[in-house]
Amino acid sequence: MSNYLRLCTILFILIPATGIRAQTIAEWIDENCGDCNARMQTQTGVYVLEKGEEALIGRAWLTQHASASIDVQYFIWSTDNIGILAAEQLLSAAERGVTVRVLVDDFLIDAEERTLLLLSAHPNVHIRIYNPNVSVGIGFWQRLKNAVTGFRAINQRMHDKTATFDGIAGITGGRNMADEYFDYDHEYNFRDRDVLLLGRAVVDMRENFEEFWTSELAVPVEKILAEDAAAVASADVQQRYQELHQYADDPTNFEPQVREAIEGIAEYFPELLKAMSWEDVIFLSDVPGKNSGEFGLGGGGESTNQLIDAVKNARQTVLIQSPYLIMPDGGIELFRELASRGVRVRISTNSLASTDNIPAFSGYQAQRSDLLSAGVELYEFMDEPNIRTQLIDRYPRIAENDPIFAIHAKSMVIDGETVFIGTFNLDPRSANLNTEVGMLVKSQELARQVTASIERDMLPGNSWQTTADFNPDFVVDRGKRFKSWFNRLLPMEPVL
Predict the structure, then answer these.
(1) Nearest C-alpha neighbor of 48 from the set 430, 409, 392
(2) How far is residue 431's CA from residue 329's CA, in Å, rounded to a whole number?
(3) Higher pLDDT residue, 149 or 207?
(4) Does residue 28 have a pLDDT over 50?
(5) pLDDT tops 70 at residue 17
(6) What does the pLDDT read at residue 401?
(7) Residue 190 is inside which H or E element, if any?
């Protein structure tokens, strides 16, 4: 199995060409795990997807073997290599008769409006845009008006990232649908974390998707672009479909060892099943809109409340990994109270050298000394960590590009037994504005796995430990330090 991780970025193109019906997910489970169906009625199988290649394999295989439905929900969907391949695979599933529903937030969607319409023209493909007030179908002056008259509305985004397949399997976590989240970007890669779920929690995940899909905030792309939709011709639709398939079939778009992965994937999934941990999982989620909005940019949410309750009940340790670290109201006081009770609080986050979000980092800078005085141990991830060859199996082939690494994982371990993996950043935006999802579970085995992963990221050579006397801001150039300083002058904290 040594080849599968470094080859899987191209698995999206491995569509069965023989005409033989692929084994369905349900059939595969029946064949490879005799007691899984019984377990799935009351429990959830959990497998932590640490590497981007591995997370891509999971999505690719499940997409190829779904037989009834695929529901996907993302904050970002880019039109880069991974985004195009994902769209092509969903189209291929639709052509097999699978009902495909795609819900994408409007804020950072990176797709031509015409492409959205052409894809949604397929009778089995349905695309909706969440809270469309920024990008799709919105001109400059309308966007400006929305920002002035509805500041909270324009900042309330769907940060959820879920994919469910036949209502049986699901994936959630930090990864958006873009190159840098799957270790495929040659210049910038996120160190992220997802979980693959089978069973009971997937039912809750699908119900949450249904709640968002039927919300008034989720608008069909044909309704947003009604005039353009009327002008779409069947010939245009077929041409676009052909272009997508040709792109996926072109070996120049992918790693040269593509075909070697075909045999390996058949062996990988049975091994994954054996490695699954069966647990009583809680699927955390927010309602569409997060909260009523009566508190302006505040208000919290269901995911916020559940995570706060979990932290408050900590007895010994709290270990957190979050790419952005700006404590909402009461957060620093909560950590100070925990420290006074003898609870050790450690947080792994980005440094100024690794961060992709200077405004967010400036918010952390403003609070850093207060966090330290509250008793929090801070570890800032390096842009060139020693473990980069362990994070990406194919790193030697991209090393010449000297890619930057950054944390994007959103995880927490409490008392060595309670684990959260999801989309929630430790910042006011996740706490009050963006809808979030994630897995919360009591499991010493999963806690051990995630703790080991985060603690490895925190080791010297991978992270700097920041103290009252030292921080690593000096390693970046003056221009980036100036941008961070300037952002601290702006009253942006509620939307960071």
Answers:
(1) 409
(2) 10
(3) 207
(4) yes
(5) no
(6) 66
(7) strand 188-191
Q: Phi/psi of residue 319, each to 5°?
A: -120, 120
Q: Give the whole-number percent of the chain exceeding pLDDT 70.
A: 89
| Other Cβ atoms closer than 10 A to 124 | 17
Domain coordinates in residue numbering, the chain: 4-277, 282-495
Q: With H, G, I as helix, E, B as strand and everything else as coil, classify residue 486.
A: helix
Q: Please, are residues 3 and 257 in contact by the beta-carbon 8 Å criterion?
A: yes
pLDDT at 358 over 90: yes
pLDDT averaged over the chain? 87
pLDDT in tens, 127-176: 999 999 988 888 888 888 888 888 998 999 999 999 999 999 999 999 98
Encoded amino acid at 248, one letter: A
For the domain covering 4-277, report its CATH number: 3.30.870.10
CB 130 within 8 A of CB 213: no
Mean pLDDT of 371-381: 98
Q: Is the pLDDT of residue 230 over 60?
A: yes
- The alpha-helical segments, DSSP class H, found in 276-323 are 302-312
How many residues are there in the chain?
Answer: 496
User: Residue 272: which of 4, 73, 457 has the closest Cα?
Assistant: 4
pLDDT at 428 over 80: yes
CA–CA distance, 351 with 364 (Å, rounded to integer): 10
In this prediction, residue 393 carries a pLDDT of 62
Residue type, 117: L
pLDDT tens sequence across 43-52: 999 999 998 8
Question: Which of residues 62 and 342 earns the better pLDDT score?
Answer: 342
For 203-231, b/e burial (b = at least 16 CB within 10 A) is: bbbbebbeebbebebbbebbebbeeebee
Is CATH 3.90.950.10 correct for 282-495? no
**What is the sign, positive or negative, of the torsion defined by CA atoms of 23, 25, 27, 30?**
positive
Beta bridge partners of 169: 165, 198
CB atoms within 10 A of CB 27: 13
Sheet containing strand 317-321, strands side by side: 281-285, 437-442, 418-422, 411-414, 317-321, 344-350, 376-381, 463-466
**What's the one-letter identity of residue 116?**
L
Nearest to residue 288, comparing CAs of 157, 137, 132, 161? 157
Q: Which residues, 6 or more positions from 468, have their beta carbon under 8 angstroms from its beta carbon?
A: 369, 372, 373
Pairing of strands 169-173, 162-165: antiparallel
d(CA 196, CA 175): 12
What's the pLDDT band for 351 if we cut at 50, 70, 90? Answer: very high
Indicate if 282-495 has the same CATH topology as 4-277.
yes
CA-closest candidate to residue 224, choices 135, 119, 298, 312: 135
